[in-house]
Amino acid sequence: MPQQPPARYPRGIIALHWITLLLLIAVYATMELRGVFPRGSAPRDAMKTAHYFLGIAVFALTWLRLGLRLSGRIPPITPQPPKWQSMMAALVALALYGLLLAMPVIGYLLLNAEGHAPAIAGMQLPLLIPAQPGLAESLEGWHERIAVAGYWLVGLHALAAIYHHHVRRDDALWRMSLRRRAPVNPGNG
């Protein structure tokens, strides 16, 4: 009797996971690289504008991902990890989703508090709050601190995937893999 391949997330969730990662890399890159250009220059302004729109895209995709994830079941890891690892994975996932939703909201409110509202495809987005320099400064600090936490959370998430794949040799990484064929032996695939 042939062995069943390990359970995986649906293709849509897998695709959204990796698209979100690529967008998140672009979000961080646009802010990290903007310092290469002088203040007020067109390339620096283009980086900031790209950052805003990439953030909005991450926000929208995260809601879609959450809807899909909550409407389906999470494939089990085989062999099942210890309960403490499952709890840690759930906490990190919750923190990542929180980050992916909170950062664009804080960024948008930051722009508003600075007196700006971005436009998408020529359509001006609304100002949700009036210009408030003190609030803008506070929001900028939160935005930056949460962004640093994002590096740690994404790094922890990636290290956990590597640990599961190479140390535990389970199918945790395979569940979100872009590869369609199941590995012969999870952890060696």
Widest sheet, order of strands: 1-2
Mean pLDDT: 91
Decide which structural class fits the backbone: mainly alpha
The tally of helices reads: 4
Would you list the SSEs in sequence order as H and E? HHHEEH
Give the helix level as a range of percent. Answer: 55-70%
Would you count the extended β strands for me?
Answer: 2
Q: What share of residues are in beta strands?
A: under 5%
Parts with pLDDT < 50 across at least 5 consecutive residues = none
Gyration radius (Cα, Å) is 20 Å
**Biggest β-sheet description:** 2 strands, antiparallel
Give the overall shape, derived from the CA principal axes. Answer: elongated
Distance between the termini: 22 Å
How would you explain this protein's 3D organization?
The protein is mainly alpha-helical and 189 residues long. A two-stranded antiparallel sheet has the order 1-2. The chain is elongated and about 55 Å long. Helix 2 packs across helix 3.
Task: List strands and helices in order, with pairings.
Layout: H1 11-33, H2 42-71, H3 83-113, E1 119-120, E2 123-124, H4 133-168
Antiparallel strand pairs: 1-2
